[in-house]
Amino acid sequence: MAILTETTEGPLVLSVEQVEEIGRELDALRARITADLGDRDREYIYSVIKAQRGFEIAGRGLLYLGFLPPFWLAGVAALSVSKILDNMEIGHNVMHGQWDWMREPGLNSRAFEWDNVCPGDQWKHSHNYMHHTYTNIHDMDRDIGYGVLRIDEGQKWNPYYLGNPVYATLLMLLFEWGVMLHDLEVDNIIQGKRKWSEVKALLKGQIRKSGRQVLKDYVVFPALTGPLFLSTLAANFTANVVRNIWAYSIIFCGHFPTGVQTFTKDETAEETQGEWYVRQMLGSANITGGKLFHVMSGNLSHQIEHHLFPDLPANRYPEIAPEVKALCEKHGLPYNTGRFSKQIASVWAKLFKLALPPFLVKNGPQAGVIVMRRGQPSEVGV
Description:
Residues 71-337 form the Fatty acid desaturase domain. InterPro entries: FA_desaturase_dom, Fatty_acid_desaturase. By secondary structure, the chain is mainly alpha-helical. The protein has one domain. The chain has helices at residues 16-36, 39-62, 69-94, 120-133, 164-173, 175-182, 186-190, 200-224, 229-255, 273-282, 291-296, 303-308, 317-331, 340-353; strands spanning 2-3, 12-14, 286-288, 337-339, 369-373, 376-377. Strands 1, 2, 5 and 6 form a 4-stranded mixed beta sheet that branches. A two-stranded parallel ribbon has the order 3-4. Helix 1 packs antiparallel against helix 13, helix 3 (69-94) crosses helix 9 (229-255) and helix 9 (229-255) packs across helix 14. The longest helix has 27 residues, at 229-255. Mean pLDDT is 92; it is low at 1-8 and 376-382.
């Protein structure tokens, strides 16, 4: 497997032995963390759940005083934090199976449902399986553009993409709905590559789950506040939008800033475990920040570590990140990380740039890596 274009100094070449060594070291790191899971991890996830529930109760309570603007704003803020924690540090990670080892029914990946319109089982297929197995492989990983955006130069341009920034803004504001529709592959249905009859079961699940969410947020809880129905409805809507913007921003910073690399099916065929690890490191990016920032991001601020070990408890990612970074430095691999403002700015710059026809855009050099296979290099990447 080989990756990307040459730098001014030429591509970095990883030997078969180096790739195998990377695989062994990461396997050993995973085994060590798995063997060490225990009480401090239990205490961590229980504390996050307690905090999430506390913010939700506080938010619901404050909205009974929603006729006073300070209380309405405080209620929205508390509900927003609650929804972010539920989706990012609890829901996303629980459904990855990160807490299955505890044998706690409420944290079982097969049964958990989050506060989101997307059914958990559909999300686990589109995200856990398709995205994490085929990370950044064109025509396999539908997270490359989500069937809506041009986010990589390997996607063929057409005039539709002139609206790239508009589509991205709508996806950001309505992110939970975009996630819900993701598994339908609506773009393929429109192009005739998939029939509506093939997604009937998916649609039924989506209608059932989204119906419950709409009923809860926009009927039941507003009704419980009586004459403040509209005030509470607006608060719930606002909290959902805040959560959507935050989740979108964290996820896009981890997958699409400058320097993140993509691949083709031919280039990644018959991939070894070591090559899979290398692809995950080259196809992901981290965000620097403090402990609270990492918790609020679901520790997806450590997207590189998450892609390497998606079923390890996310609270361990900050602990292993220095080792992963050192491993990258040892072999000359890029370790893409930066502050939130830098990463999100590069994502939006890319969205605007890739909206334009290729002949109007000048592409700069990218870091190059060639991973040797037995006998000769096989050049991979775009």
